[in-house]
Each structure stands twice: as C-alpha cells, then as structure tokens.
C-alpha cells in the first residue's frame, strides 16, 4: 500500500466519521500489519 492510497483511506474514514458525528483515531496498515498512516481527529482520545 502506498502512502497516497493510505491517505485516500483516511479521507474516506474522516468523511464517514463526520457524517455520523463521531471523531475517530484512524490507523491504516499494510497486509503485514505495518503502520502506513495514522491520524487523530480533533476531540478524540488516544
């Protein structure tokens, strides 16, 4: 998975989180379970 693909996944997840009114922490991993990208929306807890 490329960083560009991971960023697209994050954007889709953020849109869904906003649609349901629930801020989220979003992690994207590759097929080997290695972290590719992570973001934490405002007002979330780690």
> Which residues form runs of ≥5 with pLDDT under 50?
none
Count of structural domains: 1
Number of helices: 1
State the share of residues found in helices, binned by percent: 25-40%
Report the biggest beta sheet as strand number plus sense, adding barrel if it closes: 2 strands, antiparallel
> What number is the mean pLDDT?
97
Give me the strand/helix succession.
HEE
* Strand count: 2
Strand content: 15-25%
Q: Distance between termini?
A: 24 Å
Look at the helices and sheets and give the structural class. Answer: alpha+beta
Overall form: globular
* Rounded radius of gyration (Å): 11 Å
Going across the major beta sheet, what is the strand order? Answer: 1-2
Folded structure, characterized:
This protein is of the alpha+beta class and 46 residues long. It has one domain. It contains one helix and two strands; from the N terminus they run αββ. It has one helix spanning 3-20; strands at residues 25-29, 35-40. The chain has a two-stranded antiparallel sheet. Strand 1 (25-29) and strand 2 form a beta hairpin.
